């Protein structure tokens, strides 16, 4: 039944398309909830499942087919309610969604727009010693405001207000800003991205291609969770993303991804584009963003999740030739081989290429996943104790031996 629930949104979308094309089954003038005997249920359900069939397990097909067919017969499918929920989300999400611009001064001394993105208002506070003056906090992406010297928030009525940067974090690509106004603006409700399900309908609201298409809404489904993107050839394990296919484009960055309760479940941040790729869009889960936003809001910066600044390979994935290349002892079957150490990372000048990490703070390290889990709860400034097997080259004989080395690494922000 879990699989059935996951694909129901696809089915609902198909129902909506049928409604728009005038399917008699959903004709509002029908007085009876019972369908006419001339309706070909097999043809209707088959057409709905033509695109779904290849995506589900074969043994479930007949079961799902019969369940949906029965819903048709009983008249329990309420397409109007699905449509109304989407309309309510749009009505709730649009007022909290704004445009975000970063401005710079050019060589002629003129202030120009440097970049344009989207944002969501998430907090209102009344300022003390003021006559109904409010401060509104909103988030966007770090890459939207990075490089700017001044900022502004833009609204659907083409008005704009100067904004101030509270702080931003490049690693997580989150920025928090605020503006002051005596007007009342809506504030978004943040959802629980951990409860979001693959197959769940979501809506993106933002400004694709800038303010000329302000407040555009697109709909899709969640296609995956806990996705990690490749940056500079290395998988970024510090940030996981929600994958979805609600279309986003340049200008959508920093905008909200909303569920059908109108709650923010993600911050749109990236998409894959190529002639062979379509519908691969990514959002920062709001639960991850909450921690970053809280620290920026209260301390002006995010202490950050940690990394060693290394690229690694699990020893068990090495061939015998690979072990010889990296001087890994033949009998070693577990551990994590260090293949590169970045000069900007915490491990620079401490770990060395060809080191094999076998223990972290007393925990056995067998795979790269073990290493990621071992540092999951560490923060900048924390220190971790490692045990590594390090190859030692004898210059005279040209032979290589190994020794155990114990190291302490204090996590820093990337240099």
Report on this model:
By secondary structure, this protein is of the alpha+beta class. It has four domains: 2-77, no CATH class; 95-181, Thrombin, subunit H (Beta Barrel); 194-290, Thrombin, subunit H (Beta Barrel); 310-410, Pdz3 Domain. 22% of the residues lie in helices and 33% in strands. The chain is built from eight helices and 20 strands. The protein has helices at residues 2-20, 41-49, 58-74, 79-93, 142-145, 286-299, 320-325, 368-374, and strands at residues 97-105, 111-126, 134-140, 150-154, 160-169, 174-181, 201-206, 216-227, 230-231, 234-235, 241-244, 256-258, 264-271, 281-285, 310-314, 336-341, 356-360, 363-364, 383-393, 400-410. The strands form four sheets. The chain has a six-stranded antiparallel barrel. Strands 7-8-11-14-13-12 form a six-stranded antiparallel barrel. Strand 1 and strand 2 form a beta hairpin. Helix 2 packs across helix 3. The chain is globular. The two termini are 49 Å apart. Mean pLDDT is 81; it is low at 16-41 and 47-58.
């Amino acid at each position: 039944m879990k699989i059935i629930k996951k694909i129901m949104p696809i089915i609902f979308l198909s129902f909506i398309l049928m409604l728009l094309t005038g399917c008699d089954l959903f004709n509002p003038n029908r007085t009876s909830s019972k369908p006419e005997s001339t309706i070909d249920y097999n043809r209707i359900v088959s057409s709905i499942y033509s695109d779904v069939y290849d995506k589900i397990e074969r043994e479930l097909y007949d079961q799902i087919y019969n369940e949906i067919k029965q819903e048709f017969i009983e008249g329990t499918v309420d397409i109007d309610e699905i449509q109304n929920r989407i309309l309510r989300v749009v009505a709730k999400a649009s007022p909290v969604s704004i445009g975000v611009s970063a401005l710079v001064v050019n060589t002629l001394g003129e202030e120009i727009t440097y970049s344009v993105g989207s944002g969501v208002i998430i907090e209102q506070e009344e300022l003390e010693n003021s006559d109904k003056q409010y401060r509104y906090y909103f988030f966007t992406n770090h890459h939207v405001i990075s490089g700017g010297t001044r900022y502004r928030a833009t609204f659907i009525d083409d008005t704009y207000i100067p904004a101030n940067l509270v702080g931003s974090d490049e690693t997580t690509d989150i920025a928090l800003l605020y503006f002051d106004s005596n007007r009342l603006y809506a504030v978004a409700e943040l959802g629980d991205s951990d409860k979001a399900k693959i197959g769940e309908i979501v809506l993106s609201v933002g400004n694709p291609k800038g303010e000329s298409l302000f407040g555009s809404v697109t709909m899709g489904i969640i296609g995956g969770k806990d996705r990690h993107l490749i940056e500079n050839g290395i998988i970024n394990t510090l940030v996981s993303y929600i994958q979805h296919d609600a279309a986003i484009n340049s200008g959508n960055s920093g905008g909200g991804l909303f569920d059908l309760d109108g709650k923010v479940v993600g911050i749109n941040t990236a998409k894959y584009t190529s002639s062979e790729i379509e519908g691969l869009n990514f959002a920062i889960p709001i639960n991850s963003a909450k921690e970053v936003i809280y620290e920026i809001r209260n301390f002006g910066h995010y202490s950050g999740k940690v990394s060693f600044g290394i690229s690694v390979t699990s020893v068990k994935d090495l061939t015998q030739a690979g072990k010889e290349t990296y001087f890994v002892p033949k009998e070693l079957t577990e551990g994590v081989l260090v293949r590169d150490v970045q000069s900007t990372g915490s491990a620079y000048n401490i770990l060395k290429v060809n080191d094999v990490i076998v223990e972290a703070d007393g925990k056995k390290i067998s795979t790269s996943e073990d290493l990621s889990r071992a540092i999951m709860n560490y923060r900048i400034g924390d220190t971790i104790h490692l045990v590594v097997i390090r190859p030692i080259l004898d210059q005279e004989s040209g032979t290589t031996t190994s020794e155990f080395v114990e190291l302490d690494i204090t996590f820093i922000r990337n240099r």
